[in-house]
Amino acid sequence: MAKSLLCSSTLNPFFSTTLSSSASSKKTQIAYSGNSKNQTSSLLWNRRELSLGFMSSLVAIGLVSNDRRRQDANAAILEADDDEELLEKVKQDRKKRIERQAVLNSAVKEKGYLQDLVYKLSKVGQAIENNDLPAAGLVLGKGIDTEWVKTVNLAFTKLSTSPEENTEVEAFNSSLASLITSVNKNDIESSKLAFVSSAGAFEKWTTLTGVLEQLKGL
Predict the structure, then answer these.
(1) When you count CB atoms within 10 A of the terminal residue's CB, does the N or C end of the chain come out lower?
(2) Alpha helix locations (H) across 130-162?
(3) How many CB atoms lie within 10 A of CB 168?
(4) Do 155 and 114 meet the contact criterion of CB atoms below 8 Å apart?
């Protein structure tokens, strides 16, 4: 009986400790298992987020690329249109220059009238500079209805093709009328101003029409 009690008292602590250790081990395993599942679930979720983020980035990049391609295509179309318009403008300008040159080459008589005008303006300018208005009056005549003024305007009419050129023709005729009137009145200051205006208008006209180079060659 004593032996039985001894065995019982000796084994109980052993079983108690063993059971306690076993229970503790199971709890640890359960906890570890739970943590492992949580970690696995967390990793899977993170991978899913990364995958979704990656796919979103690819979609965004694709949209941006498509948008850029559309923009480049539109820019290319606009550039092509601009090139066509520029090319057409160059063709038209070249055509106008050829036509103008043909007119100038054929206007032999008219260029002679203009050359006479250059000579008369030179003589008038020298006379006004020397305060010799009677000499200037002999070159100009008594009014704008003189023959040389009429022939000069015939040349203006044939060689003027733009509104700007016609504006300079009007300015020249107006200044020339003032010049003739001032010279006949013996008004030296007004004559100087009118001469500068008429000569300036004629010079602008020759530049616009291209006649200036033609007159230099005469």
Answers:
(1) N
(2) 133-140, 147-159
(3) 22
(4) yes
Q: What pLDDT, on the 0 to 100 scale, is given for residue 3? A: 40
Nearest CA to 133 among 189, 85, 94, 95?
Answer: 189
Q: Tell me how long the chain is.
A: 218
Distances (CA, A) of 136 to 103, 161, 175: 33, 32, 15
Least confident of 15-19, 85-89, 134-138, 209-213: 15-19
Q: Using one digit for the tens of pLDDT, what is the confidence trace for 95-108? A: 666 666 656 666 68
Q: Are 114 and 149 within 8 A, CB to CB?
A: no
Structure tokens at 7: 């065995």
Distance between CA atoms of 82 and 90, rounded to whole angstroms?
A: 12
Contact of 185 with 114, CB cutoff 8 Å:
no
Burial class of residue 17 in the structure, from the number of CB atoms within 10 Å of its CB (0-12 exposed, 13-18 middle, 19+ buried): exposed
